[in-house]
Write a structure and sequence with these properties.
75 residues; alpha+beta; YefM-like fold; 4 helices; elongated
């Protein structure tokens, strides 16, 4: 994380993308008080597959149809 004043941000505006890529996070300050935070986008991570999601979920001991029947019977 790097702290930059507004004047420094204005000076580095042409190279702001490189600065964010290098530092990761930039806090913009005015008179020593933080006013903004610049973060890089997380475009590298794709959507997880459904198979991976299902594999990460715990297996149910009873099927969902049984849960639905029980819930309907209670109404």
């Amino acid at each position: 994380m790097k702290n930059l004043s507004i004047r420094e941000v204005r000076k580095e505006l042409a190279h702001l993308d490189e600065l964010v890529a290098r530092e990761g996070e930039i806090v913009v300050t005015r008179r020593g008080q933080p006013i903004a935070r610049l973060l890089p986008l997380r475009s590298k991570r794709g959507m997880p597959s459904h198979a991976d999601l299902r594999a990460s979920m715990p297996l149910l001991r009873t099927g969902s149809e049984q849960h639905l029947r029980t819930e309907r019977d209670e109404q």
